[in-house]
Design a protein that fits this description.
Blueprint: H1 4-11, E1 15-21, E2 29-34, E3 40-47, E4 50-57, E5 62-69, H2 77-90, E6 97-104, E7 107-109, E8 115-118, E9 123-127, H3 128-136, E10 140-144, H4 145-156, E11 165-170, E12 174-180, E13 183-184, H5 217-221, H6 223-232, H7 242-250, H8 254-278, E14 282-286, H9 293-307, E15 316-319, H10 326-336, H11 346-357
Parallel strand pairs: 3-6, 6-10, 11-14, 14-15
Antiparallel strand pairs: 1-2, 3-4, 4-5, 7-8, 8-9, 11-12, 12-13
This protein binds zinc ion.
Length: 359
């Protein structure tokens, strides 16, 4: 189905309709892609103690990348970020820069000004997008990291074939982005999709979560929790981390495999509940935890399938392989996805204007 939004974009020469996708039952969907611009975009992923940057072409391919130390909690964090961005942009191609996309681990409300809440580093209502755009003189679009990844999926990955899907990330935390009718659902405060904070463990001594509550999903099956569980079970030494745990499971250590299997079971039940509520066509799994995913599946599959309503039991689960620069590539997709956003604000309109003008 071609929406009026897409018809307008095709008329403007920003979007082309490709071949029919006949991989799913029902009326074939047209695969859409961006065209008509030879510009580049810059994507940045913010982490508490560093930033990852990429320069990407309009088809999402990464031309170059960098990782720089940076401290989000420093008083000079934003001016330092401007400096890092200016330096990265100056070292890039001479093709027109269409905009900068910034992915943050917090919640983003008011995407026009890119207002970020990231309590772990003391950011409360920080107008990041506004500050960066003003300093750099180019459009800047800020969003939650997982939303950015979902947009990259929608443009370049498995999500091209689905109007309704969940992108779930496994790693330090557990994240989720909800795409309905092709659009990312952000909710009232930008917090939609926070599956990591679904309450799981109601024991009084349940693990404390970064959000302040106890027993949240990511406090129970996030990387730190898996490492702590493995150490307590004697499956991991005191100084060993998640990579060692994956290695042990790969080598056939049953205690290590059980840690992942149990995490898979808990995730499976929780995700089945979410699928029953949202009714997506597919779930896309990704994140830095994917190298260990095969050890999660024996717990995940029965819990997930068994928790789905019977008519949804065959739901597709797509595995997206993980690369180090994927988060920053997702941030770049924030800029590339603007033609597909129905609620285009000033930043999006500025990006579209630069896309049309680029040689
Ligand atoms: Zn929490």
């Amino acid at each position: 189905m071609v929406t009026s939004l897409v018809r307008g974009l095709v008329a403007d020469g920003l979007v082309a309709e490709g071949d029919d996708d006949r991989s799913l039952p029902g009326r074939p969907a047209k695969l859409l892609s961006l065209v008509g611009s030879s510009g580049v975009v810059v994507g940045v992923k913010l982490v508490a103690d560093h930033v990852a940057l990429v320069e990407a072409a309009v088809d999402g391919t990464v031309a170059r990348s960098a990782v720089e130390p940076w401290r989000a909690s420093a008083p000079t964090a934003i001016s330092e970020l401007v400096r890092l961005l200016e330096s990265f942009i100056a070292g890039g191609s001479d093709r027109r820069l269409l905009g900068v996309g910034v992915g943050v681990p917090g919640q983003v409300a008011g995407r026009e000004r890119g207002t970020v809440t990231w309590p772990a580093v003391g950011w409360h209502g920080t107008e990041l997008g506004e500050s960066l755009s003003h300093s750099l003189g180019i459009p800047v679009i800020v969003d939650n990291n997982v939303n950015a990844l979902a947009l990259a999926e929608r443009l370049f990955g498995h999500g091209r074939r689905f109007e309704h899907f969940l992108t779930v990330t496994i790693g330090t935390g557990i994240g989720c982005a909800i795409v309905v009718d092709g659009m990312i659902q952000r909710g009232a405060t930008g917090a939609a999709g926070e599956i990591g904070h679904v309450p799981i463990d109601d024991a009084p001594d349940a693990r404390r979560c970064e959000c302040g509550n106890r027993g949240c999903l990511e406090a129970v099956i996030g990387q730190d929790a898996l490492v702590a569980t493995a150490r307590a079970a004697g499956a991991l030494g005191a100084r060993q981390g998640i990579d060692a745990l994956v290695r042990r499971a790969d080598e056939g250590d049953e205690a290590a495999q059980r840690v992942f299997g149990e995490a898979g079971r808990i995730l499976g039940r929780c995700l089945a509940g979410l699928v029953n509520v949202i009714d997506p066509q597919a779930v896309v799994l990704t994140g830095e935890g994917m190298p260990g995913w095969r050890h999660w599946t024996f717990g995940f599959e029965p819990a997930f399938r068994g928790g789905l309503m019977p008519q949804r039991r065959e739901l597709r689960v797509e595995i997206e392989t993980w690369q180090e620069d994927r988060w920053a590539q997702g941030a770049a997709a924030l800029v590339l996805g603007t033609p597909f956003e129905s609620d285009a604000g000033t930043q999006s309109r500025r990006v579209r204007a630069r896309m049309v003008a680029a040689p």
